[in-house]
Amino acid sequence: MQTTIDRVRGCTSCEKKLDVVVLRASGSDGYNPYFMGMKGVDSVVSLVITDRATSSRPDVVDAVRNAELVFFAGGDQCNYVRWIKETPVKEAVKSVYARGGAVGGTSAGLAIQGDILPNSIRVQIADTEGARAAQRVGRGSAGVPRPAMLGRGREQERSRARRGALLSLFASRRVVFMTGHLGKDALDELLRLPNIGLLQKPFNIAELLDALASVSGGGRTPAP
Fold first, then answer.
1. Among 111, 134, 162, which residue terminates a domain?
2. Rounded to an integer, what distance in angstroms lies between the CA atom of residue 44 and that of residue 184?
3. 100 and 8 Cβ atoms separated by less than 8 Å
4. CA 34, 35, 38 angle in degrees (round to 5)?
5. What is the pLDDT of residue 99?
6. Which of 30, 44, 63, 150 is deepest in the core (most CB within 10 A)?
7. In terms of domains, do 147 and 95 share one?
8. What pTM did the predictor assign?
């Protein structure tokens, strides 16, 4: 982390200092002493966001936008999706990176920054053409009623279509899911693919290497 701070500052031993914002969906300010112990940090503010309304509050958005480093704490990535995705706070985070700041995280806070984000509700996907197709399946076309308005049978049909699009997307990727918040049954369909594996926390380095080798070779990753 010190290396990241120094890169944003543009030096290793100058007087320039950064403001850090820690974004959380649970917990409190446990990272504050850690960041304040870093050379070149002027201030640390931890913001615990537990609803979408907080992600639109001007004081919260301004605090994020004015930071030079934004760090997402761990926890449950589902909550970050629920409460930060497509909100002014998300746009503020993007603006920090766009002007040369840094955005990082750990555990769930790192997972949400990937191109493909699994969670216990759905799979949020970004970027590739196949991903955009999967998103369209999930959202529906303009003018089409939402699932709650269509009735249970229609909702199940949409759910099957969405799962089919996701299975198609992952069919050509080698992936090991690493999680402490998800039961094996929630990924059951994906785990039927020979190129998909699962590691549940805690795991050691030997188990990680074994899982990666198994998926790379087209074998199965044994369930822990």
1. 111
2. 37
3. yes
4. 100
5. 92
6. 44
7. no
8. 0.57
**CATH classification at residue 11:** 3.40.50.880
Task: Look at residue 32 and tell me if it is in a domain.
Answer: yes
Judge whether 223 lies within some domain: no
Whether residues 132 and 76 share a domain: the answer is: no
Instruction: Residue 27: name the closest of 68, 94, 80, 65 by CA.
Output: 80
* pLDDT tens-digit readout, 22-72: 999 998 899 999 999 999 999 999 999 999 999 999 999 999 999 999 999
Looking at residue 223, its amino acid is A
**Tokens (6 digits) for 175:** 């992936």
Q: Which amino acid is at 99?
A: R
**DSSP class per residue in the chain:** -HHHHHHHHT-SSSS--EEEEEEESSS-STTHHHHHTSTTEEEEEEEE--STTGGG-HHHHHHHHT-SEEEE--S-HHHHHHHTTTSHHHHHHHHHHHTT-EEEESTHHHHTTSSEEE-SS-EEE-SSHHHHHHHHHHH--TTPPPHHHH-HHHHHHHHHHHHHHHHHHHTT--EEEEESS--GGGGHHHHTSTTEEEEESS--HHHHHHHHHHHHTT-PPPP-
**Which has the closest alpha carbon to 112: 14, 51, 23, 190?**
23
Q: How far apart are CA 144 and CA 126, in angstroms?
A: 22
Do 185 and 93 reside in the same domain of the chain?
no
Residue after which a domain boundary falls, among 111, 132, 153: 111
The pLDDT tens digits for 91-141 are: 999 999 999 999 999 888 888 887 655 544 343 333 334 444 434 433 433
